[in-house]
Amino acid sequence: MNRRTFLRSTAASTVMFSGRAALGSAAPPQTPKLRDEEVLERAPANIERHRKGDGTIAVKDSTGKPVPGAKIKIEQLRHEFLFGSHFFLFERCGDLEQKYRDRVAELLNYCTLGFYWDAYEHNHGSPEYAYTDRVTAWTGEHGLICKGHPLVWDHPCASPPWLPDNNQEIQRLSTSRVSEIVSRFAGRINYWDVVNEATHLDKKTNHSRMADWGSSLGPVKYVAMHLQKGRLANPNATLLVNDYRTDIAYYRILSQLLAMRMPTEQHASITSPKTNGEDHSRGRKLFDVIGIQSHMHDSVWPVSKVWNTCERFADLGLPIHFTETTIVSGKRIKGDTWEPSAAKGEQEQADATARFYTTLFSHPSLRAISWWDFTDYATWQNAPAGWLRKDMSPKPVYEKMKSLIKGEWWTNLEGVANGHGEFKARAFYGKHRITVELPNGERQFQDVNWQREGRNHSTIDRSAKLRSTD
Which long-range contacts (CB under 8 A, 24 or more apart) does 177-180 make? Predict the structure, then answer.
């Protein structure tokens, strides 16, 4: 995939691992194939089951006694599920900058930042750290979680021309880059697409020094050494392997990586709460999430394909992120030339996107979806892929997705405490603000996290005013 033009416009020894699987030994499971209508019919019940949980709000007075009849309101503040887009246009869209930022902050809670090596460090020794500092300062202020993409890719846009013609030195530079960047931005960027598109790691496909070196190692070894560096640099980071292929080749690479573990002698130094009860008897896994791309410039995936793809990779036992998603509002004429986006195409984009997101949101293994290009202002392949037009005005897809993300899939409940001073609720996972109005008119507030795991029980008393559980 040629992103070089777009990116220009927007901006030691091999480690040995244990538990190696034989190449080509793994195969995807034979899962039941659902039809489109079956997927969509089951989606509401699946969303109810997998995206919401039960909880109880208990209201007490100053003496600790229950307060029957207290009015209770539960308003969602943030999704647990990550709804995102790439955020490459920060400081890069002139007079439209504020509109762009406002639209992103209004709807999304997750954004992808670019780390393509050639663009990010076009001059050796001068990476764009100051720019990333400014971006993460803004996203931090607006509550957006950041992911870096990609740290390692054999495409020319991620293989700077200053790389030496020496594989050992390229390995040192590439692995050191992963360590340095992941460590430097720990706490601000805790999600990383560590390695991108290893399924076509071949110097015949991508003519670059990274491809020459990577193909000499093979995809599994190449990916594994970079994941290990990322894990050591920030044990709390969520590490992804990302690819556009959803066939046996990608499945086999992932299954072999999952058979590996961090070396035992390094395991003790990277154990952290992030491991979610993982069995460490063989050491920690190399990565945490399976990344799947879904660029649909010329045709939209049937929802049955979306669901069945999720089922296939969910068999590997890890969460799934759809990392790069595109559905366009106009037809391609040829190459990077497109018909103007018109009302009919924009409505078709909105309808198809809603079906796509509904299918993914209903699957229990999905944790994130990232759109690829949020605005038509500057897009990959010049495609009319945005939720916003070039002037940052919202297309129907923006309004449609807002009605889902901040409407149908958003908790907004009101009720009254029962005789025991309790209110039972079922809410979407994420952060919520609970407002309690006592019989005397006094109001109390508390921000709580409605969690997938554990007991969602909150007590609201006099000490709860403006208190957050974060």
Answer: 177/117, 177/121, 177/151, 178/151, 178/152, 178/226, 178/229, 178/230, 178/233, 179/229, 179/230, 179/232, 179/233, 180/233
Q: Please answer whether residues 21 and 249 qualify as being in contact, where contact means their C-beta atoms are separated by less than 8 angstroms.
A: no
- The reply to whether 240 and 266 lie within a common domain is yes
The tokens describing 124, both together, are 């050796």
Please tell me the predicted confidence (pLDDT) of residue 2: 42
Same structural domain, 334 and 250? yes
- pLDDT at residue 270 in the model: 53
Cα separation, 441 vs 302, whole angstroms:
53
Q: How far apart are CA 21 and CA 100, in angstroms?
A: 46
Q: CATH no. for residue 440?
A: 2.60.40.1120
Q: What is the pLDDT of residue 12?
A: 29
Per DSSP, the residues of 21-64 read: PPTT------PPPPPHHHHHHHHHHHHHHHHEEEEEEEEB-TTS
Domain that holds residue 431: 53-75+413-468
Residue 434 within any structural domain of the chain: yes
Query: Residue 224 and residue 228: Cα distance in Å, rounded?
Result: 6
Answer whether residue 279 shows pLDDT above 60.
Answer: no
pLDDT tens profile 110-126: 999 999 999 999 999 99
d(CA 38, CA 304): 8
Q: Give the end of a domain, one of 408, 423, 448.
A: 408
Same-domain check for residues 432 and 305:
no
Q: Are strands 320-327 and 366-371 parallel, antiparallel or unpaired?
A: parallel
Q: Are 296 and 327 in contact (CB under 8 A)?
A: yes
The number of distinct structural domains making up the chain is: 2
What are 388-401's pLDDT values in tens digits?
999 999 999 999 99
Q: pLDDT digits over 46-62, tens only? A: 999 999 999 999 999 88
The encoded tokens of residue 81 equal: 């599920």
In a shared domain, residues 458 and 378: no
